[in-house]
Design goal:
OB fold (Dihydrolipoamide Acetyltransferase, E2P), about 210 residues, membrane, 5 strands, Phage_phiNM3_A0EWY4, about 40% helix, alpha+beta, transmembrane helix, five-stranded antiparallel beta sheet, 2 domains, transmembrane
Length: about 210
């Protein structure tokens, strides 16, 4: 039973960590090499696409999606999609997809004359499943070695930790004051009932 308990606990925290890693904003430093628009037909990976631009027909089976191509200082390539999140999840309330695409296009540069930008995004890049992180904002920075402190993620994690601690403390208090005594009383009544049954059975045999 202990193995089942710890397996459940480990799986739960792994899923929670994966959810937070996907949802919380991250920032990459790169230079934009190109921007383009492509017709997308979401399939089994539809959960990893956002939605059509707010105000348009979101019921279409396929739609045009903006993309931002980048290259990092170490030479790695990263491609971001650029979609509205609207009023949905994650709650970034992003409605400026077209404006962001125009900003990204204006910041394109070459290796000979690089313009470095900080791209805030959420999500993962999985080439096997054609999954792209969703860009939230783009801003110019001084160079590829600039340090960006993820204040948004830090604040969210602190709030989640505080809420989790408060719930845990209340649960422990409820368990100690209400649940544990009720379980002990129930167990005692079961033991007393079992003892009476055993005595009654013993007398019937004699």
């Amino acid at each position: 039973m202990a193995y089942v308990k710890w397996t459940f606990i480990i799986v739960f925290w792994l899923l929670a960590a994966a959810f937070l890693h996907y949802t919380l904003p991250q920032t990459d430093i790169a230079r934009i090499t190109d921007t383009y628009e492509k017709r997308i037909d979401p399939g089994d990976n539809r959960w990893f696409w956002a939605r059509a631009d707010v105000g348009t027909d979101g019921t279409m089976a396929n739609r045009d999606v903006f993309f931002i191509q980048t290259r990092r200082a170490d030479g790695d390539v990263m491609v971001y999609r650029n979609e509205d999140t609207g009023w949905g999840w994650p709650p970034y309330f992003k409605f400026d997809t077209s404006n962001l695409q125009a900003e990204a296009a204006d910041l394109r540069s070459t290796a000979a004359d690089p313009v470095w930008v900080a791209i805030k995004h959420y999500g993962w890049r999985a080439e096997l499943f054609t999954i792209f992180p969703n860009a939230l904002s783009v801003r110019r920075v001084a160079g590829p070695d600039v340090t960006v402190i993820p204040w948004t993620s830090i604040v969210i994690l602190i709030v989640l930790a505080a809420v989790g601690w408060a719930l845990w403390v209340r649960w422990r208090r409820f368990h100690r004051n209400r649940l544990a005594p009720a379980l002990d009383s129930m167990g005692q009544r079961l033991d007393d009932g079992g003892s009476r049954l055993r005595r009654a059975f013993s007398r019937s045999r004699h």
